[in-house]
Write the structure tokens for this entry.
Amino acid sequence: MQPEKMTGTLKEQLNSITPALQEMQMRKEARLKQFIEVQTEIQRIASEIAGRPENEAITVNQEDLSLKKLEEHQSELQRLKREKSDRLCKVEEYKVLIHNYAKIMGMDPSKILSNVHTSLLDGANDQQTKNISDDILNKLNTMVQQLKEEKNQRMDKLHSLGKALTKLWNILDTNMEERRPYGEIKIYSMTSGSSMLGPGSLTLETIQKIESEVQRLDHLKASKMKELFMIKQTEIKEICKKSHMDMPYQTEMNKIMDVIMSGDVDHDDLLKTMDEYIYKVKEEATSRKEIMDKVEKWMASCDEERWLEEYSRDERRYSISRGAHKHLKRAERARIIVNKIPGLVELLMAKTEIWEQEREKVFYYDEV
């Protein structure tokens, strides 16, 4: 109704426009209510995302209650709702990861979550929607990374212990009955990813169990290796004794014994080292054999020479007595042997000199 076309008295004119004014007032109040609802929801979600309490009063600019402005607020509300939904999904993802890591490592997920924020615990549904702030997400992410690192460290340790256990089993020829209690742990130690790990597979108790077994077998291995070392050392001593050689590698073998007692020597390395020593000792004993044969022949000749001297001093050597003929025959043989001593000594010295030149060391016979 155009004011300039209105006719009648002022009262009549007022009565005619009152319904229109009332309708506009109702529309304004309805629009204002929409603004308040939208802005209230915007503030609530924005506060949750920011991690701050909702204590700010809603102020609506009543100078602009246009549909365009309302649509702008509604678009902002939809954006915040999507962000809230994404953050809630992220919170749930973190919670699932924390539960999985805790389950594998035998930890209490509720305790872990409560350390981040008590409202993250299941059952606190009235507060869950508020746990979407950057602070909460950062704390959850940090916790997940810490648990992941702890899981990786335990996995690395389990892998290392698993390899050590397998090696010790093979060295000690451990039977299947003794291996069986560690079968499942052994499987876990060979697993490369978390998907194959069962509940409690990386608990501290599990790792301590296998660690204790490795330590026990290590001590047993040290005892076995000491026994093996003594056998090999005795073999070297026997070769040296038989060939009248100095005991070589004594310093090295003393060091090996120290390493064995510390548990720091590898079984294969020990065998290889001792077998190398035995090979070298045998090789030297073989190189000395010709000289040793000459030495033994010379010593036997010297024994015959001493016997001949004693026999020559015996005034009864020509008497007719039982056995005299045998002694006479031996004396004849002894004289032949004694006459060869100078040549034998000369040959022995020549052989020894050649040996020393080839070996670049002095030939010793029982340290002489």
The radius of gyration is 51 Å. The mean pLDDT is 83. Residues 3-151 form one domain. DSSP finds twelve helices and no strands in the chain.
